[in-house]
What does this fold into?
Amino acid sequence: MNGYLILEDGTVYSGTYHGAEKEILCEVVFTTTMTGYQETVTDPSFEGQAVVMTYPMIGNYGANSVDVESGRPWLSALIVRELAPFPSNYRSEEGFGSFLDRHGITVLSGIDTRALTRKLRDSGTMNGLITFRKPVDAGSRLAEIKDYRVRHSVIRVSRAHPERFGEGERKISLIDFGAKRNIVESLVARGCAVTVWPWDTPAYVILDSEPDGIMLSNGPGDPKDCASVLRHVRELVDSGVPVFSICLGHQLLALAAGFDTERLKFGHRGANHPVKDLKTGRVYMSSQNHGYCVRPDSVDPAVAEISHINVNDGSVEGLRFVGKSVFSVQFHPEASPGPRETGYLFDEFISMVDARKEAL
It folds into this structure.
């Protein structure tokens, strides 16, 4: 059936609507990822958002039960130029459209995604309404669309109970703000036994389990919506246990240290974002998915130094805390999808863990 996207500025895009007949209020964002669409849609960081894929054909290699970052897709809707009807890949278990339909995810195809992406780059991230009803008077819905806010997403995507993975000698506690599966797999592959804790687990509970290292995961939304956990983050940082934080975890670590965050105009989402390691001068291509960043002028150099920056816009991509085994990055070193060249940061974290274990 016909489908429509109405942006908060009144712009209307027409296409083909796939899925159950329902209207979807959402935040409309774009990702420049060319492959890895299944990992993208199952990333919990997209909760509450409609994702525009800039690559024109999506679904050509199908879907399978392996290339997922969580148990289900979390995005509100997917917007594409063309949804491939016939997958061709030896790993394919079902069509991508079938996979999304099975999970109740609406797809809007036939959209000029180049024009829509330019609109979002020029005007910034906007809210939208996806509907199967032809908008006779789109202006009458604009107030409703503008008022939509993605709030408290972490509560919805975090697990409710602790889970354990791996049998390694290093005990790592991962706090789940919307953790991607490959974070756990990256740790397990490095000889770690990983306990994944719900997002609001008190620090004393985690520390009582005597972890060798602590990680704060990625996740969706505004980091300031998670203000209630900042005191727990401070306790973890002050415990002396090595801490490594990714994406939302990086922002929460910054807020807990007294720094500030701000919203980016259109965010960083994709698998081709260049970041520079200021210590070595080397530039890495990275996988990213975030709409907020740490304000550089709020970082106190007596507390932490900026370790990485985004080459495109100079935004903060990493922090290293002075005198502590604590560091964080805004990008995703576990990739999935995306280049894996920043995986060295996991090795650095493991080295910190091992050094502390030897010293005790």
Q: What stands out?
A: The two ends are 65 Å apart (CA to CA). The chain has a mean pLDDT of 97.
